[in-house]
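Attaching the record inline, Q. Sequence:
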Amino acid sequence: MATSSDASPAPPPPRRRRRRALIWGGGGALAMVAVAALVIGTARPDWYVRAWDASGITCGRDLSSMDAGTFDSPWAAWGDAEHSDVDAAELNTHRERIEQLADGLGFTPVGEIPSTTDYSDGEVSADEVSVEVAAQGGQLRLSVNETQGIRRLALIDPGTGEASWQWNLDESRDAGVIEQGEHLVLVNRILRGQNVFVGEQSTELMSIGKATGEREHCRRFPGSGGYAASTTDVGLLVGGKSWNPMVADEEQDDIDTRTVQQVTLPRFSPGSTTALPAVEYERDGFSRTRPLPLSMGPEGIFLTHAYRLESLTPDDLFTVSTSTDTVGDPDLIPIQARSLETGEVLWEYGSPGDPIAVIDQVPAAPDRVENGGILIAETSDFRPRSDDSGLGSAAVTVRLLDAEGQEVWEVSGTDVGKEYSSGDADRYVKVLGDVVLLHTGPTEVTALDAYTGEELWSIPGAPDQMQPLWLGDAVTLDGHLYVPGYERQYFVDPRTGADAPETATAIARSQMLDIRPVGDDFIMVGAERFGTVVLQRAS
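Structure, as predicted:
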């Protein structure tokens, strides 16, 4: 007799074969999807470009290094550049002034870089393309920009226009270029998808060698962020959910806590993360929030501070503390120094409510202030004039703090009336190398040793002048300080104050305020409508 087990039918082999067929069929479908994704990613149709780029699979894919020899440099020999929408008579006047300036400085004009340019491939018209020029060591870095942002980046010889390296973007990008040590950091903000594919934002950071143009590394981080560079290989990626890095903080009314992500170049290796609290305040009767300002400090630290200096009168002094703004956090410390490596607070300066603002860094000097310092300003109460309560003056005390937050020196009694107050604070106080220029009266300027606070020399006040000297436009040029002003200007030795009035007059007559050194033998002169002119030291 058969048992019950003998009576049970065996599973039919075809079912097993069908399951294997389904498994193989599923794998084939996945393979087809992968191939399709690769094809789509390679073809990159417009509707898919941003979704693909933001996936993080190919960070920096839209950046392609090209042979520098193929770069169509906008640099032209002096007198040969073509300027669109510029009257011939105006151009001739401009060139005459440049030649007078060069002669006064002992230089010769050798090149021009118009502010607009054509692409050699004719893709974009000249009126949609602008050229920005920055000094990088003894060379010039060009950013060729379309209306949407950077399209090309190159490093050229200032005397010949020949490119050492260049980078092209397959489309213009809303990106920034930041120098950090031996690296350049390209900060590219990316939106995942567009139209129906809109999603989260991300920030792409790519490092390239500043001198070689060689790509080093690329990494993506979630969220929309800005970037702060230090003198070391440690940088800070600053981001926030409600923060727009392309809009000034004071124009944004509701910014929540801002996050600082520490990264190390060249691979952007993530380190510590720090949350910077938002400041609650009232303006025009409405409650608002704004993040603490952030500044890079001496080596190894960054600064968060309650106030940012705008000008030297209390009504305009701080972005979050004016006659119509009231800081809401009573425990707010004016200045906190944090470690670049860990984000922890290393030291604090001031007491809650003190009107203290960060001005600038003072460079390190091993035999004086070893790790550099921080120049700060503190204002007294506003003193209104008897005939007009809206006008008056305030005393300003300037101090130098070292990298440990200890006071090195202070100079008190700076008195600048509100009637002379306009523009940024560097119109009244500015650091140039080892010299601090300071308005010690409405039209008087005193030069201080940046490391000791000792007075070096002064420019006396001019009773017939109603404007201060324009310290915001003061520059170091060929070993001298050029200090411009209305109907007066100075070209002085930074340590002795000895003036060269003929040179100062030649610079003033050129009507060029954007004058910067490029290494030891070149000077770049910027004029908005005419672009940039390159001057070379006369042999």
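DSSP finds five helices and 37 strands in the chain. The helical segments are 4-7, 13-43, 46-53, 88-105, 501-510.

More tomorrow.
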